[in-house]
Amino acid sequence: MLDKRMTVDDIVDQLSDGMTIGIGGWATRRKPMALIRAIARSNLKDLTLMAGYGGMDIGMLAATGKIKKLVFAFASLDHYPLEPHFRNARQAGAFEVLELDEGMYHWGLRAGAMKLPFLPTRVGIGTDIVNQSGFDFKYVTSPYEDGEEFVAMPALVPDVALIHAHRSDERGNLLTLSKDALFDELLVRAAKKSFATVEKIVPTAQLDMQKNSRYNLVERAMIDGIAEAPLGAHPSSADPDYQLDLKHIKTYVESAASPEAWAEYKAKYVDVSEADYQAAIGGADAVKQLPVPIY
Amino acid sequence: MTQNSYSLAELVIAACAEVWRDDGEVMATGIGPLPRIGAGLAKLSFAPAIQTTDGEVYYTSEPVGPGKRAAEPEFEGIANYDRVFSALWSGRRHALVGPVQIDRFGQANISVIGDHKKPKAAMLGARGFPGNSISHPNSFFFQNHNKRAFVEGEVDFVCMAGYNPARYRNGAAPKGLDLRRIITNLCVMDFGGPDHQIRVISLHPGVTFEEVQDNTGFPLVRPDGDIPVTPAPTPEQLELIAKIDPNNVRATVFKDNPVGDRRPAGDKREA
């Protein structure tokens, strides 16, 4: 019987220093935060983080000094537009960055997923994106009559992709039930290995795949391991199971005010087991009652 | 409400709405309360074909204003991010965005102030600005028209491409580059000067060209003759604005919610 079940810590044990880790989700939506907290607690170091559509994933790993290089298009907490830990780290010059356009990041993942070395794009032309010292962007000319010159957006190929989904069976047949699946499928296809946390592992029949086929993120062959992590996206959302926790995000934002404030947050919400984390945030019932946010 | 008792925010909303007047059936994205209400105003009046979203993932039949909603809007389509990229790359979108800096070329910045490697202020990151800028029409809103926003040289990190030949390997910008209007607390501008130089096309009531120029880090093109006054919102427009923004978020944008007509009393005539 094919059984890909692991624990969150088992997944983190698959990671090593210097790896390139791709993170799914978007800003405050479906960030694999149980995994991020476990990485923050680990001894891992010198990570290259590919988090194009970043939020607390970037902030928390920046605050814990895990990042050597960041590949991203933005870091935002939506209702709190600026990610405070990301800002602190950037302003201290704490890590190298490759800043991309959102669509270029998408295109890089798509090239990775298609096993192409690059995809041509106009995006980046005329901007400082293509002038960064951290990466030597190359250009290609259309071989057809138009002869237009494009930026060659290189494939983004993480060693490991980490995503959060809603349901899986033990074989890794995933359901991502949100209205927007975001770019998690491309991330998984681009990465050499992929691990998912899910709200709940269920028997295959309970995936009700005929009804839910549109939510089946990717074929299971692309998924190397799954871990059940209820509320594993908190404080980001895993709509429709639960919404983002604005009150907790405020607490998180305030933790960037001083090293002492961060130490306090870290002790209470990061350096603890997931069970203790859930107790600290008021329990699962409270999280499931969170109101739908207005964007 | 008398003819002249509109706020600066409402004047700006009406000016924002104008950017979509002749766009046809495109995705209209207004970032921030006034551009968003402006898109709604355009949709409910002279540009009914534009598509606007709930700010998250659906296109809605009626515009959705900022803040709490009395009722769930009618959804007419899905605008997941993958589709937003597809739409914007097609050119069928016009965004009205609020950068932190802009320069004489229309190059705009939301990434960093200072050195990119170790910025004095790290902001959002480039987001989708580079792709937006060369794919579809873009307009801008600046809440505070000053030299920190309208910078003297180039912006600190060019997120949106502009009309700067030095930035293009063959000297020409991609065909999709189409910068339209800039709306501020002082005036409305476009890129209609020689070589796409930024030109003042209307002054908000009570504002002079000199005041605008003094608050801009580069020379602006002054049109020949009298510069028009930015048209006041009509009573019908003010009603629609109130309908789109029942939470009155528009009153919180400018400090103390100033009136739209800042001419001295006795000098107020129909704009």
UniProtKB/TrEMBL annotation, chain A:
Entries under Gene3D superfamilies matching the protein: 3.30.30.40, Glutaconate Coenzyme A-transferase
Residues annotated as transmembrane: none
Source organism superkingdom: Bacteria
MF terms (GO), sorted A to Z: glutaconate CoA-transferase activity
Annotated SUPFAM superfamilies: NagB/RpiA/CoA transferase-like
Record flagged with keyword Transferase: yes
Protein name: Glutaconate CoA-transferase subunit A
Organism: Sphingobium vermicomposti
Phylogenetic classification of the source organism: Bacteria, Pseudomonadati, Pseudomonadota, Alphaproteobacteria, Sphingomonadales
UniProtKB/TrEMBL annotation, chain B:
Molecular function GO terms recorded: glutaconate CoA-transferase activity
EC number in record: 2.8.3.12
Keyword list, A-Z: Transferase
Matching InterPro entries: NagB/RpiA_transferase-like
Chain segments annotated as transmembrane: none
Keyword Transferase included in the entry's annotation: yes
UniProt key word Cytoplasm: no
Protein name: Glutaconate CoA-transferase subunit B
Biological source species: Sphingobium vermicomposti
